[in-house]
Fold this sequence. Notes:
Elements: E1 2-6, H1 11-28, E2 33-37, H2 49-58, E3 62-64, H3 74-78, E4 100-104, E5 110-117, H4 128-138, E6 148-154, H5 158-168, E7 174-178, E8 188-189, E9 195-197, H6 214-223, E10 239-246, E11 253-261
Parallel strand pairs: 1-2, 2-3, 5-6, 6-7, 7-9
Antiparallel strand pairs: 1-10, 4-5, 8-9, 10-11
Amino acid sequence: MKVLFCGDIVGRSGREAVLKRVPELRRRLDLDFVFANGENAAGGFGITAAIAREFYDCGVDCLTTGNHVWDQREIIAHIGGDPRLLRPLNYPKATPGKGIGTYTARNGKPVVVINVMTRLFMDPLDDPFQALETALAQHRLGPTAAAAILIDLHGEATSEKQALAYTVDGRASLVVGSHSHVPTADARIMPGGTGYQTDAGMCGDYDSIIGMKKDIATQRFVRKMPGERLTPAEGEGTLCAIYAEIDDASGLARRVAPVRLGGQLVEAMP
Length: 270
């Protein structure tokens, strides 16, 4: 099975990169399943139902989110009726929506996607380690279970994301971090066979400060006081993603590689 995860989609530049590149990549890489983090897609803050539909129409099978999931208030009423839009699994039980979903890949096999948010330097949600343990007790890799288990770890601290990944190594096909908007150079297969990268990076304009216009973001550091609202940079976006090949028999990774197309960064393809 061939899988692609697109990192945080930031603003119009990020949306345009995904809408342009995903159909091309589905053909070029013969992809069976595509998922993406959409929590910054609507003007840099949150996601709307209309934007989610655009991603589905272009070939994204599932959307994950994170700490900005509720920024567009309309999504609160929508998310419970959209099985392809996930929020972090470790929100309290009464929170609308769900953090795990089972989908059918293009090759007809079942794929489980889990969305978890870390806690260090983030909102104090429920324990992500326990949330993953509970989820993986119910969803296992195997010929009579899930063909692939894919996890988006949305979080700030690289150490916490690495600890979570080692905890589930051998029980998930692919674990990829999101949230920092900067791609890390550690794509690899872990000792137990799980594919991993600490952060996929963002889909957006890299002539920016994590996707936002440079002057406005810089002034927040210089003046140490509130100022003009942060708005996404508007130059050509780079699509940053992670490509993985999953073994059909074991459900574990055989290959993991970064994908970078367009915009400011040096291009990379598997």
